[in-house]
Amino acid sequence: MPESSPVLIVGAGIGGLTLALALARRGIDVTLLEKRTALEEAGAGIQLSPNASRILIDLGLGRALSRAAGEPARLAVRSGRTGALLAASPLGETMRERYGAPYYVIHRADLQMLLLDAVRSTARIRLHFGRSIRSIDRNEADVAVTAEGMSGAETFTGRALIGADGVWSKAARLTGDSSEPVFRGHVAWRGTIEASRTPPAIAQDETGLWLGPGAHLVHYPIRNGARINIVAVTENPIAERGWSRQGDAGVCRHRFRDWPEPVRALLDQVDSWLVWSLFDRSARSRWSRGRTTLLGDAAHPVLPFLAQGGALAIEDAAVLASLLDGASDVPAALARYEALRKPRAARVQEAARSNGRTYHLGFPLSAARDVVIRRTGAALTDRYSWIYGWRPDAPAA
Predict the structure, then answer these.
(1) 317-352 pLDDT, tens digit each
(2) Do 21 and 122 meet the contact criterion of CB atoms below 8 Å apart?
């Protein structure tokens, strides 16, 4: 397969769109297949720490990001039992100065749309909606994907295939890995409110993290401060697949009925919740097989206790595009990508799981946790310098 042939990407989420742009910026043609007929991200926020924002900025999205995203002034951690402030760590300009890139928060739909706009305006990218993959055929020279659309089956051929189709990746199954994600016993509730409805005791310009027994809550501004994004994570033994099932507001309020008044008042303002069960898996034992590999949640889903799922996918895209640029041996480039990314992904996964355990401690262990957080104080985010300071050209951490 000549170098002029496209790279095939399955999945037009944040990782797939970023990879398509990164490849096209390097002069590589891309065919991007998405099973949905349109991209409609559910209403919720996403955090773009410096390790992710710098990549998007380098792809030419800096101006669009600065219009759509916000930069909270600080991270404030509070007790879900007493409401006391345990620690506050600066974000905003401090993160820019320390890591050379902003710590953004943004509505997922806004991020997806600015990525999509950039993809649509790039001649080297062919985006096909409503294409559900049915088979993948590989040989030494190329890889072919047969996808079903409204007009029937169509086959796309390229030099490589990248599965960026999420935690329940069909591309992974079709390339030989039928293992299932693991439910971790947590359910996340996602909602947003108009900033004008924020209770007076809740700061609108910060990322708030409340820690309590068996649950935690996060809130931060999105849409240039016009709305507040809220994520409440609770423990639940029952799992359901999917990202957008409706949640009963009364159930959520009942779960937090004994929490401090500002939390209860905040939850009272949410009219509509979307609920999803949290799954992850250890990084797959093998991502790359010949001319196929995986990216983002398809390879290494991350629990949302470190706000790094989307960031890791963006990192993957930057590394993979760099390795495919001018690669004469595509399978070797994909194997190198896996070798570089797997240790970091595994470390981030474990750090996220550890946060989940720590966040939900009950008394008296939570008291010891709170003492440690108080002593850490403004240096709270420093423990994640190995995450935020990562750059595509740096050694894998």
Answers:
(1) 999 999 999 999 999 999 999 999 999 999 999 999
(2) yes
Condensed to tens digits (0 to 9), the pLDDT of residues 265-275 reads: 999 999 999 99
Pairing assessment for the beta strands 292-294 and 160-163 based on DSSP bridges: parallel
Q: Which of 99, 104, 220, 337 is catalytic?
A: 220
| 99 in catalytic set | no
**Fold observed for domain 7-181+281-388:** FAD/NAD(P)-binding domain (3.50.50)
Q: Are 214 and 234 in contact (CB under 8 A)?
A: yes
Which amino acid is residue 283, in one-letter code? A
The order of strands in the sheet holding 152-158 is: 132-138, 143-149, 152-158
The model's pLDDT over 106-129, given as tens digits with 9 standing for 90+, comes to: 999 999 999 999 999 999 999 999
Q: Is the peptide bond before 6 cis (omega within 30 degrees of 0)?
A: no
**Sequence-ordered list of residues with C-beta below 8 angstroms from that of 55, at least 6 positions apart, any chain:** 18, 22, 314, 315, 317, 318, 392
- Chain length of the chain: 397
Which amino acid type is present at position 272? S
Q: How many helices (H) and strands (E) does the chain have?
A: 12, 18
Phi and psi torsions of 379, nearest 5°: -90, 15
d(CA 32, CA 130): 11
Residues 341, 334: Cα–Cα separation, whole Å: 11
Q: Where are the domains of the chain?
A: 7-181+281-388
How far is residue 249 from each of residues 29, 75, 77, 186, measured CA to CA in Å? Answer: 46, 26, 24, 17
d(CA 352, CA 45): 18
Q: 99: which 2 tokens?
A: 């890591």
The answer to whether residues 373 and 380 touch, using CB atoms and an 8 Å cutoff, is yes
Report yes or no on whether pTM surpasses 0.85. yes
Contact present, 179 and 301 (Cβ < 8 Å): no
First to last CA, the chain: 34
